[in-house]
Prior knowledge:
Blueprint: H1 2-14, H2 22-31, H3 34-45, E1 55-57, E2 68-74, E3 80-86, H4 94-106, E4 110-114, E5 117-121, E6 125-126, E7 131-135, E8 139-143, E9 156-157, E10 163-169, E11 172-176, E12 181-184, E13 187-193, E14 199-201, H5 263-270, H6 279-288, E15 309-312, E16 315-320, E17 323-325, E18 332-335, E19 338-343, E20 346-349, E21 363-368, E22 371-374, E23 379-381, E24 394-400, E25 403-404, E26 409-414, E27 421-431, E28 443-448, E29 456-467, E30 497-502, E31 518-529, E32 532-533, E33 538-539, E34 543-548, E35 567-576, E36 587-590, E37 592-593, E38 595-602, E39 605-611
GO molecular function: polygalacturonase activity
Keywords: Glycosidase, Hydrolase
Family: Belongs to the glycosyl hydrolase 28 family.
Amino acid sequence: MARRRLLQGLSIAGLGLGLEGGLMKSALAATQNPWQQADDIVARLRQPLQFRKKDYLITAYGARTCNLRKVTAWISFEEQALTETPDDNAPDCYAAIRTAIETCHREGGGRVVIPAGNWFCAGPIVLLSNVHVHLQAGAHVYFSHRPEDYARHGEVDCGENGRLTISRWQSNDCLNYSPMVYARNQDNIALTGEDWTAVLHGQGGVAFNDAGDCWWTWKGKLKTINAVGQNSVPNYKAGKPSENAVNPLNAESLTQLAPSLGEAMRQLIQGQGDKWRADANYLPALSEAGVPLEKRVFGKGHFLRPPMIQLIGCRKVLLEGYEVRDTPFWQHHPVACTDVVIRKVHAKSHGPNSDGFDPEACNYVLVEECTFDSGDDCIAIKAGKNRDTQYGPSQNIVIQHCTMQSGHGAVTLGSEMAGGIQHVYARHLLFENIHWKTNPLNTAIRLKTNLNRGGFLRHFYVQDVRIPNGVQTSPSFYTSLPGSPIQSKTVATAAGAVVTFDCDYTPVSDNVRIRPPVVEDIHISGIRVGNVDTGKGQYSCYQAIVILGPVASDYNGPAPVPPVPAVQRVTIRDCDFGTPVASSNPVYLYNVRDLQLTDVRIGGKVLNGQFSG
């Protein structure tokens, strides 16, 4: 009974968030200048958090520094290097940090201080209300790279699967390995560093067994092969366990977990064969089938990598001033949080799915003065997937004065956005793309959804973006479904365009395709894209703009087919996209109504007018 109450708290805590401010902000949007609305969000989030003025040093609770040794580890998809990691006999400071935080919280709050030095932590740092965890300059926390250490301390006893944590994995609720830094339903919390010598290290590329496998190996076979820099997964070979290999521990049929599910829906969710039993497919299948959280048990024996920092249902959150490095999965993942600020953080991880910052179903978020150097999207705004939409939309988000380097998309919305995304403002950004020769930014402004993820994107504004080294100049194409009017491997939605709206994102990965997305009211201005010398000429991208609207033929639910709307009310003005490689076809449109281009320069030519496709 206690376990059931604990799990029920996840849904109860988030029910009101999706509605809070939704109607109010929609009304404000109709009366305010959008950039004034962005200023109002910033003003709200500039109010500093207040903490009791007392410090709790972790050394007072038994924490001791550790010695380091050098090992060969993966530092990206394809590259290995000598890396420092704690000695095998390193003292574990997990208990000391936990006790310091719990004591600080119990006594009314304050600051838990991690001093300069190397610290080994074989378990999660769990934040509590009114506690500010601060890393001094030179403090380097090495989190254990062994998965079993994140199935020891969770609040839910799941037997052979371990003591697990209420989590979300790619926008579906589950019980799983704990993130390295975690909080749930806490208020007034902060995680800060004095500067970027204060490091939280996930050790995602350090081997945990004699076969050389690491967290990143669990990614398994890549579904989308990008043209540059991401053609393999560290130490993965066919036949190894991974998130996309069939897991025999998973049920053979959904009737075992959802006996009331109709046969037609069961067949639709499971699809052909048993690929749905791979962990990465199994979890969304459980969501589609309405399986409750307490039966979505992963952890030991499963291969869903946890996020590095995950905060669920929290209010008044500050993340500031540190570097996060080599994370197992997404770097920062606040879910159903209100009033979140991430500022002056260096998000550096080149492994699979190393998104820099993924706010999900959050309300009032400020991202400023951060640098993202990511193995996946730098920023990716999320809002639930399948039927896990209880927290509502992501909304009232400002992204400003940030720098992006490597990554799939610099500013991305989706792909998990079933609850909707609205009122997002991105301005004064530098997509520097310093690794353009070897590991380039795939695309700059990116939307991802499809008839599975559905949801809506509306009221998205972009202003003043500099992209001096362009984006990837070779195309990465998507694979369409049989019967699609779009031939496979002909549209460069995966990489190569500066602005990419992909409303048919990896459709072959989703068995259930019954939710047409709505994409409207998007306004982009002031993008300046530079050319680079590719050896074959001076180019900025493969194409300037790719807008692939929803593809109606993908629908596979019951008749009648619902309306599949075109992408509409999109304006792009006062932009210079440089010189695309595909100079004869620099803009691709499908299911787009009245795209308005005003003073848009592509390859030296200026485009004005309305365009549809």
